[in-house]
Amino acid sequence: MSRLVRKPISLFGLAFILIAIPTWWRIRWQPPLAAQNPPAAVVSDLDVKLIRAGLDAKALAAAGVSANAATALVSAANAYLTDHAAALPNADAAFAAARRETDRLKRLIESGHGAQEDVGNYQTQNTALAAATADRDAALAAIVAAATAGLASDQKTALARIRANQTWKEVGVEFLVVERTEAQWVALRDALAAERIAAAAGDELPQATQTLLATARANGPVAAAHASLGTNLAGLTAAWNAATHN
Question: Which of 30, 84, 110, 132 is most deeply packed, by most CB within 10 A?
């Protein structure tokens, strides 16, 4: 009788072991969560694309973006570029082709060897170049829109102004966050140059130049950009570099 009782128990134990061993094996050898969900691969030349879009570390710092927000921005840009991998390269290729043909026709006409039809073709090609330029700008603008979706409106405005004022980047990024007339840009550029020369020579700046620079630096957005660069640029640059080369 006892033998009959022990047999079902033994069979039950064996069945339990056969079930438990595979379960234990799966739990024991389950890969870490990071291995199950690896980070998205960084697209080729992500840093270059962000710089072209006006989203470099210095511009972000001047706009008041934090290091954490910069990391999220780079991630958003990377996701967009992963999903739209061909948009910018195609726009670049079309722009380059249009630029080459436009330059070729221009050189031909200016050399005196161009035919009458070349003059007409040049006008047509100029139109094509303008369209290709607009398409390339639109491709970069799409990157900006996707990357900055999580930023505050004032930060987006500051970045837009920095991009729009890139012609005057020699004055310093903090000054680019406000709009100026061309005459005002020229006056600011010349005043900053005079300040550097005077400092090197140990001379005193004219009072008018001092007043111009003091007024420019006291401007609210400019002062905020300057302060943000001083406190956030180092950490933001480290975060930006890490995110773009992950």
Answer: 132
- Could you give the CA distance from residue 241 to residue 204 in angstroms, rounded to a whole number? 40
Token pair in block for residue 190: 């010349």
CA distance 136 to 121: 22
Nearest-5° angle of CA 142, CA 144, CA 148? Answer: 125
Q: DSSP of 136-205, one letter per residue?
A: HHHHHHHHHHHHTTTS-HHHHHHHHHHHHTGGGGGG-GGGGGS---HHHHHHHHHHHHHHHHHHHHTPPP
Alpha-carbon span 73 to 144, nearest angstrom: 9
pTM of the model: 0.80
Give me the tens of pLDDT residue by residue for the chain, a chain 246 residues long: 444 444 554 544 554 454 545 554 454 554 554 444 455 798 999 999 999 999 999 999 999 999 999 999 999 999 999 999 999 999 999 999 999 999 999 999 999 887 889 898 999 999 999 999 999 999 999 999 999 999 999 999 999 999 999 999 999 999 999 999 999 999 999 999 999 999 999 999 999 999 999 999 999 999 999 999 999 999 999 999 999 997
d(CA 172, CA 119): 42
